[in-house]
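MODEL INPUT / OUTPUT PAIR
PAIR INDEX: 1
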Amino acid sequence: MTTQCDRLTTFPPQGDVYQLQQPVDFAPLGAPGQVVAQLLKFPMTRSYNP
């Protein structure tokens, strides 16, 4: 059986695309139940060069 860890050759993975697992709600301070915006997708590519 091959797992994702078996294929991981560098850490952090470079050039991979990441996406949110759950939406992020934005609400005013003091009113956490009053959601005014929601971030549904935030794909990004992450590169690391020490």
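PAIR INDEX: 2
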Amino acid sequence: MRCITTEPNLTGFVLCAKPLDRRIDLSKTDTPLPPAETGEDDLVPDGLNVFPTIKGYEAAHRVCVDQFQVPITQRAVREAWKSRRLASFKIGNACYFSEADIWRWLKSQRRSAVVR
């Protein structure tokens, strides 16, 4: 096996790869790349912050109740956070949420109406 370089990289390892003549040229493949999935679930209303600015699930609960006006319990938010259904960011020792992630989670809780 030939090595690409004999200089160690930042980790101290030498990068080695398969022989260069056996590489696959991806520009010559006939299979097109799949289109990016952008569905209705990915859309968030304008003005919602996508950056993690809400610290703690208690504050995420306040956003649900005060900003989005959804009557939901703090326990429901905490359980969604624990089960990782509500996306969060671990920054330091705290969990942060974004308004857009809370909005997506609230939309995922929607149930379809049963017509009888």
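PAIR 2 NOTE: The chain has a mean pLDDT of 79.
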